[in-house]
Amino acid sequence: MSSSWDSDCEAAFEAALPPRWEFRDRAFGSPGIWRPFPEAVSAEINALARRGQRRGNVSMGGTELVVDLQDMVAMPTDQYAVPRMLRKSMRQPNINKKTLKQLYSTYMEELPPSDHPGGPDGISGEKFLDLFKDLDVDPGTDVAALALAAACNAQEMGVFRRREFICGCAVLEADNITDLRSKMPELREQVVSGKSLSEVYTYTFGVALEPPSKVLPLEEATQYWALLLPDWALREDFCNWASEHLKKKAINKDLWMMVLKLATEVPPDLSTYDENPAWPVVFDEFVEYYRAAKGLS
To answer: pTM of the entire structure?
Structure first.
Protein backbone atom coordinates (compact mmCIF):
# COMPACT_ATOMS: atom_id res chain seq x y z
CA MET A 1 0.00 0.00 0.00
CA SER A 2 2.88 2.36 0.78
CA SER A 3 4.07 2.44 -2.83
CA SER A 4 0.89 4.03 -4.14
CA TRP A 5 -0.43 5.78 -1.03
CA ASP A 6 0.96 9.21 -1.96
CA SER A 7 -0.37 9.06 -5.51
CA ASP A 8 -3.75 7.85 -4.25
CA CYS A 9 -3.82 10.77 -1.82
CA GLU A 10 -3.07 13.27 -4.57
CA ALA A 11 -5.83 11.87 -6.78
CA ALA A 12 -8.30 11.79 -3.90
CA PHE A 13 -7.35 15.29 -2.74
CA GLU A 14 -8.05 16.63 -6.23
CA ALA A 15 -11.46 14.92 -6.21
CA ALA A 16 -12.22 16.33 -2.75
CA LEU A 17 -10.94 19.83 -3.44
CA PRO A 18 -11.15 20.41 -7.21
CA PRO A 19 -8.36 22.68 -8.46
CA ARG A 20 -8.96 26.33 -9.18
CA TRP A 21 -8.02 27.63 -12.62
CA GLU A 22 -6.36 30.96 -13.36
CA PHE A 23 -5.56 32.92 -16.51
CA ARG A 24 -2.90 35.49 -17.21
CA ASP A 25 -4.47 38.89 -17.82
CA ARG A 26 -1.92 40.78 -19.91
CA ALA A 27 -2.05 44.51 -20.41
CA PHE A 28 -0.09 45.90 -23.35
CA GLY A 29 3.61 45.97 -22.59
CA SER A 30 3.31 44.22 -19.19
CA PRO A 31 3.97 40.62 -18.16
CA GLY A 32 0.41 40.40 -16.89
CA ILE A 33 -1.01 39.08 -13.64
CA TRP A 34 -2.73 35.79 -12.84
CA ARG A 35 -6.44 36.10 -12.13
CA PRO A 36 -8.76 33.33 -10.92
CA PHE A 37 -11.64 32.23 -13.08
CA PRO A 38 -15.07 32.41 -11.42
CA GLU A 39 -15.91 29.19 -9.57
CA ALA A 40 -18.48 28.17 -12.19
CA VAL A 41 -15.86 28.44 -14.96
CA SER A 42 -13.32 26.47 -12.93
CA ALA A 43 -15.99 23.79 -12.46
CA GLU A 44 -16.53 23.64 -16.25
CA ILE A 45 -12.81 23.25 -16.89
CA ASN A 46 -12.53 20.55 -14.20
CA ALA A 47 -15.42 18.73 -15.87
CA LEU A 48 -13.51 18.79 -19.17
CA ALA A 49 -10.45 17.36 -17.43
CA ARG A 50 -12.45 14.59 -15.73
CA ARG A 51 -13.90 13.54 -19.09
CA GLY A 52 -10.38 13.36 -20.52
CA GLN A 53 -11.08 16.07 -23.09
CA ARG A 54 -8.15 18.06 -24.42
CA ARG A 55 -10.30 20.92 -25.74
CA GLY A 56 -13.68 22.35 -24.92
CA ASN A 57 -15.72 25.53 -24.72
CA VAL A 58 -16.56 27.42 -21.52
CA SER A 59 -18.42 30.68 -20.95
CA MET A 60 -17.20 33.59 -18.85
CA GLY A 61 -19.16 36.82 -18.53
CA GLY A 62 -20.83 36.47 -21.90
CA THR A 63 -17.55 35.56 -23.62
CA GLU A 64 -16.99 32.13 -25.11
CA LEU A 65 -13.54 30.63 -24.48
CA VAL A 66 -11.97 27.64 -26.23
CA VAL A 67 -9.89 25.91 -23.55
CA ASP A 68 -6.93 23.75 -24.55
CA LEU A 69 -5.73 21.69 -21.58
CA GLN A 70 -2.72 20.31 -23.42
CA ASP A 71 -1.27 23.64 -24.49
CA MET A 72 -2.72 25.32 -21.35
CA VAL A 73 -4.29 28.27 -23.15
CA ALA A 74 -7.78 29.75 -23.41
CA MET A 75 -8.71 31.48 -26.65
CA PRO A 76 -11.68 33.88 -26.69
CA THR A 77 -13.78 33.34 -29.79
CA ASP A 78 -13.95 37.10 -30.44
CA GLN A 79 -12.17 38.31 -33.57
CA TYR A 80 -8.61 39.55 -32.93
CA ALA A 81 -8.66 38.03 -29.44
CA VAL A 82 -5.36 37.16 -27.80
CA PRO A 83 -4.82 33.70 -26.24
CA ARG A 84 -4.68 33.64 -22.45
CA MET A 85 -2.28 31.36 -20.66
CA LEU A 86 -3.82 28.94 -18.14
CA ARG A 87 -2.54 27.40 -14.95
CA LYS A 88 -4.02 25.04 -12.40
CA SER A 89 -3.89 25.92 -8.72
CA MET A 90 -4.07 22.83 -6.51
CA ARG A 91 -5.57 22.96 -3.03
CA GLN A 92 -4.25 20.83 -0.20
CA PRO A 93 -6.47 19.70 2.69
CA ASN A 94 -5.27 20.28 6.22
CA ILE A 95 -4.54 16.63 7.00
CA ASN A 96 -1.47 14.47 7.58
CA LYS A 97 -1.05 11.68 5.01
CA LYS A 98 0.85 9.43 7.42
CA THR A 99 -1.74 9.79 10.17
CA LEU A 100 -4.54 9.19 7.68
CA LYS A 101 -2.78 6.06 6.44
CA GLN A 102 -2.67 4.71 10.01
CA LEU A 103 -6.40 5.36 10.38
CA TYR A 104 -7.22 3.64 7.10
CA SER A 105 -4.97 0.66 7.90
CA THR A 106 -7.04 -0.02 11.03
CA TYR A 107 -10.09 -0.93 8.96
CA MET A 108 -8.92 -1.80 5.43
CA GLU A 109 -8.79 -5.18 3.76
CA GLU A 110 -8.08 -6.31 0.21
CA LEU A 111 -11.10 -6.08 -2.07
CA PRO A 112 -11.26 -7.46 -5.60
CA PRO A 113 -10.71 -6.49 -8.29
CA SER A 114 -7.13 -5.41 -7.72
CA ASP A 115 -7.30 -2.90 -10.58
CA HIS A 116 -10.41 -1.09 -9.28
CA PRO A 117 -10.09 2.67 -9.92
CA GLY A 118 -10.95 3.31 -6.26
CA GLY A 119 -8.02 1.16 -5.13
CA PRO A 120 -7.22 -2.53 -4.56
CA ASP A 121 -8.50 -2.44 -1.00
CA GLY A 122 -11.18 -0.81 1.09
CA ILE A 123 -13.38 -0.86 4.17
CA SER A 124 -16.34 -3.25 4.02
CA GLY A 125 -18.25 -5.91 5.91
CA GLU A 126 -17.42 -6.18 9.60
CA LYS A 127 -14.67 -3.59 9.28
CA PHE A 128 -17.21 -1.14 7.87
CA LEU A 129 -19.44 -1.71 10.88
CA ASP A 130 -16.42 -1.38 13.20
CA LEU A 131 -15.61 2.01 11.69
CA PHE A 132 -19.12 3.32 12.28
CA LYS A 133 -19.18 1.86 15.78
CA ASP A 134 -16.02 3.86 16.52
CA LEU A 135 -17.72 6.92 15.02
CA ASP A 136 -20.75 6.44 17.32
CA VAL A 137 -22.98 6.24 14.26
CA ASP A 138 -25.53 3.55 13.38
CA PRO A 139 -25.31 3.23 9.57
CA GLY A 140 -28.82 1.79 9.42
CA THR A 141 -30.62 4.60 11.21
CA ASP A 142 -28.36 7.67 11.23
CA VAL A 143 -28.33 9.99 8.22
CA ALA A 144 -24.76 10.97 9.14
CA ALA A 145 -23.66 7.65 7.61
CA LEU A 146 -25.16 8.60 4.25
CA ALA A 147 -23.63 12.06 4.53
CA LEU A 148 -20.18 10.54 5.11
CA ALA A 149 -20.63 8.18 2.17
CA ALA A 150 -21.61 11.18 0.03
CA ALA A 151 -18.49 13.06 1.15
CA CYS A 152 -16.45 10.01 0.09
CA ASN A 153 -18.51 9.73 -3.11
CA ALA A 154 -18.54 6.00 -2.43
CA GLN A 155 -19.84 4.07 -5.44
CA GLU A 156 -21.11 1.01 -3.57
CA MET A 157 -23.35 0.90 -0.53
CA GLY A 158 -21.49 -0.35 2.54
CA VAL A 159 -18.02 0.00 1.00
CA PHE A 160 -15.37 2.70 1.16
CA ARG A 161 -12.62 2.05 -1.38
CA ARG A 162 -9.19 3.49 -0.59
CA ARG A 163 -9.44 6.64 -2.70
CA GLU A 164 -13.04 7.16 -1.65
CA PHE A 165 -12.15 7.09 2.05
CA ILE A 166 -9.20 9.44 1.50
CA CYS A 167 -11.50 11.78 -0.42
CA GLY A 168 -14.07 11.88 2.39
CA CYS A 169 -11.42 12.54 5.02
CA ALA A 170 -9.97 15.31 2.84
CA VAL A 171 -13.39 16.95 2.46
CA LEU A 172 -13.84 16.84 6.24
CA GLU A 173 -10.15 17.56 7.01
CA ALA A 174 -9.99 14.69 9.49
CA ASP A 175 -7.09 12.23 9.59
CA ASN A 176 -7.75 10.34 12.84
CA ILE A 177 -10.76 8.63 14.40
CA THR A 178 -11.26 11.33 17.05
CA ASP A 179 -11.43 14.14 14.50
CA LEU A 180 -13.60 12.08 12.17
CA ARG A 181 -15.99 11.27 15.02
CA SER A 182 -16.21 14.95 15.88
CA LYS A 183 -17.44 15.70 12.33
CA MET A 184 -20.48 13.42 12.58
CA PRO A 185 -22.80 15.87 14.40
CA GLU A 186 -22.00 18.52 11.78
CA LEU A 187 -22.68 16.13 8.90
CA ARG A 188 -25.97 15.12 10.51
CA GLU A 189 -27.05 18.69 11.18
CA GLN A 190 -26.27 19.82 7.63
CA VAL A 191 -28.66 17.22 6.25
CA VAL A 192 -31.39 17.82 8.85
CA SER A 193 -31.20 21.60 8.40
CA GLY A 194 -31.44 21.24 4.64
CA LYS A 195 -27.99 22.67 3.90
CA SER A 196 -26.69 19.45 2.33
CA LEU A 197 -30.00 17.59 1.97
CA SER A 198 -30.27 17.95 -1.81
CA GLU A 199 -26.69 16.76 -2.35
CA VAL A 200 -26.99 13.75 -0.03
CA TYR A 201 -30.49 12.92 -1.28
CA THR A 202 -29.34 12.93 -4.92
CA TYR A 203 -26.28 10.85 -4.07
CA THR A 204 -28.36 8.28 -2.17
CA PHE A 205 -30.45 7.29 -5.19
CA GLY A 206 -27.37 6.49 -7.27
CA VAL A 207 -25.54 4.48 -4.62
CA ALA A 208 -28.67 2.58 -3.58
CA LEU A 209 -29.29 1.16 -7.08
CA GLU A 210 -28.37 -2.43 -7.86
CA PRO A 211 -26.76 -2.32 -11.35
CA PRO A 212 -27.93 -2.62 -14.03
CA SER A 213 -31.28 -1.52 -12.57
CA LYS A 214 -32.25 2.14 -13.10
CA VAL A 215 -35.05 2.09 -10.54
CA LEU A 216 -35.25 1.72 -6.77
CA PRO A 217 -37.78 -0.71 -5.29
CA LEU A 218 -40.50 1.21 -3.47
CA GLU A 219 -39.82 -0.64 -0.23
CA GLU A 220 -36.20 0.53 -0.23
CA ALA A 221 -37.14 4.06 -1.29
CA THR A 222 -39.56 4.20 1.64
CA GLN A 223 -36.75 3.32 4.06
CA TYR A 224 -34.48 6.02 2.63
CA TRP A 225 -37.27 8.60 2.78
CA ALA A 226 -37.70 7.82 6.48
CA LEU A 227 -33.99 8.48 6.96
CA LEU A 228 -33.68 11.56 4.76
CA LEU A 229 -37.11 13.15 5.16
CA PRO A 230 -38.12 12.24 8.75
CA ASP A 231 -40.06 15.49 9.28
CA TRP A 232 -42.06 15.39 6.06
CA ALA A 233 -45.63 15.42 7.35
CA LEU A 234 -47.04 13.60 4.32
CA ARG A 235 -44.36 10.91 4.13
CA GLU A 236 -46.32 8.05 5.68
CA ASP A 237 -49.50 8.96 3.79
CA PHE A 238 -47.62 9.09 0.50
CA CYS A 239 -45.74 5.84 1.11
CA ASN A 240 -48.91 4.00 2.13
CA TRP A 241 -50.74 5.32 -0.94
CA ALA A 242 -47.80 4.44 -3.22
CA SER A 243 -47.61 0.87 -1.91
CA GLU A 244 -51.23 0.35 -2.99
CA HIS A 245 -51.45 2.36 -6.19
CA LEU A 246 -48.00 2.76 -7.73
CA LYS A 247 -47.49 0.56 -10.76
CA LYS A 248 -44.43 -1.70 -10.74
CA LYS A 249 -43.67 -0.60 -7.16
CA ALA A 250 -40.47 1.12 -8.32
CA ILE A 251 -39.08 4.66 -8.20
CA ASN A 252 -37.05 6.13 -11.05
CA LYS A 253 -34.68 9.06 -10.59
CA ASP A 254 -37.09 11.71 -11.85
CA LEU A 255 -39.79 10.63 -9.41
CA TRP A 256 -37.21 10.35 -6.60
CA MET A 257 -36.15 13.97 -7.15
CA MET A 258 -39.75 15.19 -7.42
CA VAL A 259 -40.51 13.65 -4.02
CA LEU A 260 -37.80 15.88 -2.53
CA LYS A 261 -39.38 18.89 -4.24
CA LEU A 262 -42.84 17.98 -2.93
CA ALA A 263 -41.50 17.42 0.58
CA THR A 264 -39.49 20.64 0.81
CA GLU A 265 -41.48 23.13 -1.28
CA VAL A 266 -45.14 22.32 -0.69
CA PRO A 267 -46.80 22.78 2.75
CA PRO A 268 -48.51 19.80 4.41
CA ASP A 269 -51.98 21.14 3.54
CA LEU A 270 -50.94 21.11 -0.15
CA SER A 271 -52.30 24.64 -0.52
CA THR A 272 -49.66 25.66 -3.08
CA TYR A 273 -49.56 22.36 -4.98
CA ASP A 274 -51.74 23.59 -7.86
CA GLU A 275 -49.44 26.55 -8.54
CA ASN A 276 -46.98 24.23 -10.28
CA PRO A 277 -48.44 22.50 -13.35
CA ALA A 278 -45.33 20.37 -13.86
CA TRP A 279 -45.98 17.76 -11.16
CA PRO A 280 -46.03 14.15 -12.42
CA VAL A 281 -49.40 12.45 -12.86
CA VAL A 282 -48.70 10.10 -9.94
CA PHE A 283 -48.54 13.13 -7.62
CA ASP A 284 -51.79 14.48 -9.00
CA GLU A 285 -53.43 11.16 -8.17
CA PHE A 286 -51.97 11.14 -4.65
CA VAL A 287 -53.07 14.72 -3.98
CA GLU A 288 -56.59 13.98 -5.22
CA TYR A 289 -56.73 10.95 -2.94
CA TYR A 290 -55.28 12.80 0.05
CA ARG A 291 -57.58 15.80 -0.27
CA ALA A 292 -60.62 13.55 -0.51
CA ALA A 293 -59.51 11.49 2.48
CA LYS A 294 -58.85 14.58 4.63
CA GLY A 295 -61.84 16.59 3.41
CA LEU A 296 -59.62 19.29 1.91
CA SER A 297 -60.93 21.39 -0.94
So the answer is: 0.85
